[in-house]
Amino acid sequence: MSEEMNQVEVMDFQVGDKVSGQVTKVEEKQVIISIPNSKLDGIIPISELSSLHIEKASDAVNVGDELELEVLKVEEDALILSKRKVDAENAWQELEQKFESGEVFDAEIKDVVKGGLVVDLGVRGFVPASLVEAHFVEDFSDYKGKTLAFKIVELDKEKNRLILSHRAVIELEKGKQKKNILDTLAPGQVLAGTVQRITDFGAFVDIGGIDGLVHISQLSHEHVVKPTDVVQEGQQVQVKVLSVDRDNERISLSIKETLPGPWANITEKAAKGTTLEGVVKRLVSYGAFVEVFPGVEGLVHISQISHKHIATPHEVLKENETVKVKVLDVNEQEQRLSLSMKELAEKEEEVKDYELPEESKGFQLGEMIGDQLKNLKR
Q1: Does 140 share its domain with 213?
Q2: 307 belongs to a structural domain
Q3: What is the tally of structural domains in the chain?
Q4: How many CB atoms sit inside 10 A of residue 59's CB?
Q5: Is 56:96 a contact under the CB 8 Å cutoff?
Q6: What is the pLDDT averaged over residues 104-117?
Q7: DSSP assignment, residue 229?
Q8: 171, 195, 215 - which closes a domain
């Protein structure tokens, strides 16, 4: 009677039924399961143990493990079971929730394959190489066994497709960091930074997780033709925050404003009465602007250009001409420098005037000789 009841219980199992069982034996390619109230043992083929490829059954289960299983086939002497299908069914529900919420979770890298990484989440999750890091990685061999944080970026249960991204997590963290930095930045702050990228119009500087632009005009007090003449990628620099556009996440920075200005100590470099050499940079109706130091221009008023009366500076000077000037007045605070060319010309005139008495003596001597000749004729 007991045997008949047990036989009836065995026959009640149908394909698709869920059963619980305990691992009693782990062989190389299959696992033997003891099922309560069942006369037949269950067998899990190695292919039904995991969503991932495994070499031996002991890689997935151990003797004594309690497992939830699904009946794949009912045979006379055993039930063919699947652990993989139950794990996948439970996993898909949880994974769909993670996907919809954008949850970040940790998972271990189980394998490194061509084109990316493999993760076991109850179903096989694939991480394409381009979605592993924010930077290029040539060799992923040391990633196996590592635990990384992931987001699900693509999920299709019908196609058994699950795509994960660690890069998305990195970018999410960068975004949060970026927002925190933007919230604390204010014009006038001086910060340390690293030159990340150089373009024709300036340099992008990393100031701790966010890049700001140093326009070419803000690289130096001197005129800059190419940004690479002043800075190099990877260079550590001091920058001053000029403006912050939080809506568009744009930060304007200046290296120039952290450097000593060209007018610093100008009263020592161009003291009153000093003679300097400079280049005519601009000619205007009221005079000429002469650059005597990089970034320092002084005005030679039209009245200080020449002793002669001139209607415009163009009569005497031309742009890019090199001239000598004398400092008449210097104001470092107001960045003003008054120069004169005429005063240096006066010295030259004084030298000529000093030679005139000798010429005069020579002329008087001639007159005297002439007078003597007249007396002899008499």
Answers
A1: no
A2: yes
A3: 4
A4: 13
A5: no
A6: 94
A7: G
A8: 171
